[in-house]
Amino acid sequence: MNKKILYLIIVVAVVSFFGYKFVNEKMTKIELGLARSTFPFKDYTGDELNELFPQVMYADVPTRVTPEETYAKFREALKNNDLKGAVARFGMEASNYDEVIKMLNDFYNEGKFLELYNYYPELIEQDSMYESIAQYKFEYYSSEYGQNLIGNINFVKNSEGDWKLSSL
Predict the structure, then answer these.
(1) What are residue 142's phi and psi, to 5 degrees?
(2) Cα–Cα distance between 125 and 142 in angstroms, integer?
(3) Could you tell me the residue range of the domain that residue 81 belongs to?
(4) C-beta of residue 80 within 8 angstroms of C-beta of residue 148
(5) Inside any domain, residue 81
(6) What percent of the chain is modeled with pLDDT above 90?
(7) Other C-beta atoms within 10 Å of 35: how many?
(8) What is the largest CA-CA distance in the chain?
(9) How many helices (H) and strands (E) does the chain have?
(10) Counted domains in the chain
(11) Which CA distances in Å does 13 have to 3, 4, 21, 40?
């Protein structure tokens, strides 16, 4: 009878140890978002994780407004001294959104929208484009250096598929 109790204690100890280990691992995975929070706490597949946590935001959203269209509308807003129209061309997804909007407000309040319009040429050339970010370049004349220089302007795609400016 003592052997039966000893075996029972060993079985309970082993089951408890592995049960504790299983629960701890699953709870960690649940906290990290790698497993479902409902029993049996199944791990997410790679496809499920990509759907839940896309590596590139809005990569699968079809384009509705191109960077060139956004840029043309931005220049038009500058030409018409339209602050609201200019601000609407910037993506809130941009990390420096507040800074750029403040700069636009400053240009508007100082009456420099036409100067900014003249700074940006009509045509821009694609430099790089990925699923949801793009960079274009343009040539402008620098009176400070007395020559033409190359400038860059960045874009981000939003959840509706509209490419928005992310830099000035």
Answers:
(1) -105, 115
(2) 19
(3) 67-165
(4) no
(5) yes
(6) 55
(7) 18
(8) 101
(9) 6, 4
(10) 2
(11) 15, 14, 12, 22
